[in-house]
Amino acid sequence: MQLALQNAETINRLVEQGEFLLKSFHDEHQKDPLGVETEFARGELIGWRSTLHTLYRDCAEDIVSRVVTRTRLQIPDGEVPSGAAHAY
Fold first, then answer.
1. Percentage, residues of the chain above pLDDT 70
2. Domain that holds residue 60
3. Number of structural domains found in the chain
């Protein structure tokens, strides 16, 4: 499945959603790198990316690349930092 063959409006919405989630993560990370809100934002971003891979398989990273290019921000890794605070 090629990304170019997908509905352009849907892809654009996914990119916009990814931009929002990535910016939200970086905003929270800047406030408190180990805070609960930062880890929540990381989880939301990881969930978005995982869903992309479920739906678009090999083309998912094309969408992620568009988000990174437009925001000029890095995608965080999927692991929780060892010193992260948790709500439990």
1. 82
2. 3-71
3. 1
